[in-house]
Amino acid sequence: MATKIIVCVKQVLDPETPLSAFKIDRDAKKAVFPPGADPVINGFDEVAVEAALQIKESAGASITVLSMGKTFVPDVIRKPLAMGADELILLQDDAFETPDSYIVANILAAAIRKIGGFDLILCGRQASDWDNAQVPLGLAELMNLPCLSIAKKVDLVDGHVRVHRVTADGYEIAEAPLPAVVTVSNELGEPRTPTIKGIMAAAGAKPTVWGRDDLGVDVAGLARIEMADVFIPVRERRCEFIEGEDEADAGRKLALKLREAKII
Amino acid sequence: MADETGVLVVGEIREGQLDSTTRELLSIGRKLADGVAQPLAAVLLGVNLGDPSREAIAYGAGKVFLAEHSFLAEGHPEVTVLALEQVCRQVKPNIVLIARTEAGRELGPRLAFRLGVGLAQDAVALGVDENSKRLLITRPVYGGNAMAVVTLASAPQIATVRPKVFEAAGKDQTLQGEVVRIAAEIPDSLRKVRMVQRVVEQGAGIKLDGARVVVAGGRGLGGSEPFKELEELAQVLGGAVGASRPACDGGWIDHGRQVGLTGKIVTPDLYIAVGISGASQHMAGCSGAKLIVAINNDPEANIFKEARYGAIGDWRKILPAFTETVRELLT
């Protein structure tokens, strides 16, 4: 049977949103999307899609993309299909947008059990909204699967997944029997840009949509964290700008300033 | 949360000694324990734990739980979590603190899910709510653009703590404490991950970790060639070269040099940022520097909000003159 890969992706606020446009709604306790701004697929998740596509190309595999949220922007959430994934399953419910990793991992686990027959689950190492970096490890624990985190290279070898894990002073080669969970980091390389053909094909695809009743999960009973506050820290601007007759002179004066302040 | 009591610090051992992050946990752990009038304990998992357990007591742990097992020597979170879960079920702590190190950021979520409780990753501030006596955990979100304050409804309340944020505890050899051994059962069948090889990539130049001066470059440098100029300045100052993620993703310098939320966290005395806009994601890795100096052509760049001294303009013109003057001053 062909290898089946599930990639978990999340739609997030574009992390490149300029700080001047970044706003928090303190009552809703989350960021507000700037007017007219579209979300993006979480960057690390796109790299996870790329890792899946590389396996598909080298060894053959089918790729199911799984995403969970309250609302989806069709052109955004279809991007993994446009990149070359085969199937899209959306877990959509008003209660499915939450910063609580315990809820998210349990719902994803329920959906993955429903999908069944998978060999490898790929996730981005963390999402750029809540930066929890918990869900993939939680999935592995809930489903009793081995987990290899922060991979920059992912290969399937004889019923095992072999990865290069990023470490502080290099990398570690490790492997685990399939099925397994692997989290992917940006060191793997830039994800591919969808082709026009891919975009056209993705536009016609019909994603499967499951809600909480389809998954039989009690969302409220899974809550483990309470968000007391979300705020933008105030930073005092106290930078002293060093000016000179020209830029080179500013450079010289900057060095002299550091000496004067006994920093060098 | 009726039964659970005490603060439990999960220790890490490096070369036979307590890691500096464990000493940081013992210092903030002591404050929290005193705040809720509960004891502070540490747990050590591994082999040859005699010396580190004495150290943990000298750094403030009233009790040290030891889980010794040959399988724990490698420190793989998949195995460590099995022993740690058993310790938590036996000790029933109210609060568990884990350093958000390479191992800890994986160990934390695994432990929380095994115990069926909540966890907050990457705490940069920790307090206790006066009324509920619950842990108040402040953590950066949205790549550091915002902060969230989180509470956890179930016990133990688990937090992973960002390294180098809290002062390390001081050593007091006169402190007394109790050592309690806990037999951890680790079935061989649960060790699924196999480590094949560790590859150390020795980048040229001084290591980022522990460097007193870091000279870092970003997107504004535009390529790999300019990093030679940064290396020259780093050499003059006896410092290390760092980079922002866009520079690493662009292939201009290797990823081992990445400073930021998903790279390294550095706390040098002096951090010189060249062509770095200062996205929160990057600042998460360098805002612990004693002093930041920025060179950037955009006066509105975020880096100037955190820098003490700045020069606005083309780094190609500013940097050579700066390096030359520094060289003259230091020789």
Descriptive account of the structure:
The complex is a heterodimer of chains A (264) and B (331). With 264 residues, chain A is α/β, with parallel strands linked by helices. Chain A has 2 domains: 4-222, Rossmann fold (3-Layer(aba) Sandwich), CATH 3.40.50.620; 234-264, no CATH class. Chain A is 29% helix and 30% strand. Chain A is built from 8 helices and 15 strands. Chain A has a 9-stranded mixed beta sheet with strand order 11-10-9-12-8-1-6-7-13, sandwiched between helices. A two-stranded antiparallel ribbon of chain A has the order 2-5. Chain A is globular, with a radius of gyration of 22 Å. The model of chain A has no long low-confidence stretch (mean pLDDT 96). With 331 residues, chain B is α/β, with parallel strands linked by helices. Chain B has 2 domains: 7-190, Rossmann fold (3-Layer(aba) Sandwich); 213-330, Rossmann fold. Helices cover 29% and strands 27% of the residues of chain B. Chain B has 9 helices and 18 strands. Chain B has helices spanning 20-35, 50-58, 77-91, 104-115, 227-237, 245-249, 280-286, 303-306, 315-330; strands at residues 7-10, 13-14, 17-18, 40-46, 63-68, 95-99, 119-123, 125-128, 135-141, 146-152, 157-161, 178-181, 194-200, 213-217, 240-243, 270-274, 291-296, 309-312. In chain B, the strands form 4 sheets. Chain B has a 7-stranded parallel beta sheet with strand order 7-11-6-1-4-5-12, sandwiched between helices. A 5-stranded parallel beta sheet of chain B has the order 15-14-16-17-18. A 3-stranded antiparallel beta sheet of chain B has the order 8-9-10. In chain B, helix 3 packs across helix 4 and helix 5 packs parallel to helix 9. The longest helix of chain B is centred in the N-terminal third of the chain and has 16 residues, at 20-35. Chain B is elongated. The chains are: A alpha/beta (264), B alpha/beta (331). Chains A and B meet through helix 4, helix 5, strand 9, strand 10 and strand 11 of A and helix 4, strand 7, strand 9, strand 10 and strand 13 of B.
